[in-house]
Amino acid sequence: MAVFTRVSEADIAAWLANYSLGTLLELQGIPAGIENTNYFVTTTNGRFVLTLFEKLTADDLPFFLNLMAHLARHGIPCPCPVADKQNRFLGELNGKPACIVSRLSGKSVTQPTTAQCAAVGAMLGQMHSAGQSFGEQMLNPRGSAWRAEAAQQVRRFLPPQDAVLLAGEVEFHATHPLAGIPRGVIHADLFRDNVLMEGERVGGLIDFYFACTGKLLYDVAITVNDWCMTPEGKLDAGHTRALLNAYHAARPLTAAEADLWPIALRVAALRFWISRLYDLHLPREGDIVHAHNPDQFKRILQNHIASPNPPWL
Amino acid sequence: MAVFTRVSEADIAAWLANYSLGTLLELQGIPAGIENTNYFVTTTNGRFVLTLFEKLTADDLPFFLNLMAHLARHGIPCPCPVADKQNRFLGELNGKPACIVSRLSGKSVTQPTTAQCAAVGAMLGQMHSAGQSFGEQMLNPRGSAWRAEAAQQVRRFLPPQDAVLLAGEVEFHATHPLAGIPRGVIHADLFRDNVLMEGERVGGLIDFYFACTGKLLYDVAITVNDWCMTPEGKLDAGHTRALLNAYHAARPLTAAEADLWPIALRVAALRFWISRLYDLHLPREGDIVHAHNPDQFKRILQNHIASPNPPWL
């Protein structure tokens, strides 16, 4: 249950007095999520989500909140932060940084259809396109320096052949960076559970707290590695092409991106293999993380290495 | 039919290429409205309204568009302008200034219940409260100078007793202004057809193109004069108190406002009596206005003059 900090109806009613959202009708804890405390909040003005940030600090948050506001301003269905009477997105509730955002409709799917893959590709392209006019920057906290450092730390927990694979991949991507391709704001975590679907339509993109500035193709690879993967950890060619073609129609992919596509898929898989190894072997004190199995991304990575001509447009 | 400028599917599809709204699914003209051309536009990202401004110019529009964006940012359900790839709200389509805004749900009601009057009062209070942090100003184009000038022009069309009533009221309000009470952004036209209801909830406030800076109580009076009026042109005491009490809970009314309430109701009625006389007797060239009957507001004004103790909190 992702309610690490309890919020009572009296707490939220008092907090809402500093907003123009009407009066509280319903408050309900949200079980999903592993980093923040989330509540559904229904007021006379509509349906919202209250988030109390358990780890991110008030210094980190403006980038994420301003980004969501920027994307919503461009018509991307994402949680839109609500400003308080002092015109600020970020407040404090029960000792934690807190914000209230619009609630989107739809629910996540586990077995997407080809049409749903296409819808997600199109929306990711729109998001990248809308993000081009966003003025703020955020370094990728899971970039090459982090990969090298984290790989070093988890290496001792691995059987020898996995340690060799890991070190080799970290070295490969350090010397083969995704250079000379378009950059911008990326979501960096657009897995199936971070997309709300309404049938074949994307109802919402959520959980922007890994968003950063990076290579757009890397974001596409992260998304494809989750949405278009078979249970065996191989890309479904039909799903992949559907996602990429729809993306391409919204934000045209370049020839340089075509060349780097196999490497983008590998580095995207590597990033999640490392973070899952890290969460499994080196959990942070107090983490209530349901650790994902790292082997899934090891297998995806191995399959990408073995298949240097992945499906493209 | 409020489609003064035709927009084809090809026109809008080309125009949408400069937005991050996905691809066009449906385009449908909107019959309501007398000042602008409006279309419902459904894209893969959601439901929107396209407006082509037939009279307002690109100089006038930023105040209105920025105001709607500001209120939406504060969680007020109002049309939220969508920014294009250059981050601008205002574009041009088929030679007219144009924008695309979020589409709200609900529909207007003609015979509001007490609960609906309360919901509108609460939302108006929220809107006034959220408007306090809006930085831009707009003079009321239907203020005292306009009243004096327009009354002068329509006077010759009136029977003598109406001309005397009109001149007397214009003179009365020129010497009894609504002074010393809270100011801010006002909608200035929150009639029943500008509120979308979803049952007893306000789904949306629309048509902000008369919004300006003014006395908040004047906005309340305009709203009450429409929402709480009986067919005989008298205030329904239950509806009026419900609206005012709900407003008061959202934005507390002051003692000075209580004193000025009878005058606020009169001047709000006078404003619409004059504009309806003007539209009837002096229609602008090319106006396709369905002129409302001015007598309704003459009767309301007379009833207000005859009832100096209108319902209050």
UniProtKB/TrEMBL annotation, chains A, B:
Molecular function GO terms recorded: ATP binding; homoserine kinase activity
Domain of life where this protein originates: Bacteria
One example of a Gene Ontology biological process annotation: threonine biosynthetic process
Aminoglycoside phosphotransferase domain residues: 27-253
Keyword vocabulary terms for this entry: Amino-acid biosynthesis, ATP-binding, Kinase, Nucleotide-binding, Threonine biosynthesis, Transferase
Enzyme kind, highest EC tier: transferase
CDD domains in alphabetical order: HomoserineK_II
Pfam hit, one: APH
E.C. code: 2.7.1.39
Reactions catalysed: L-homoserine + ATP = O-phospho-L-homoserine + ADP + H(+)
Coiled-coil regions listed: none
Family: Belongs to the pseudomonas-type ThrB family.
Protein name from the UniProt record: Homoserine kinase
Provenance organism: Sideroxyarcus emersonii
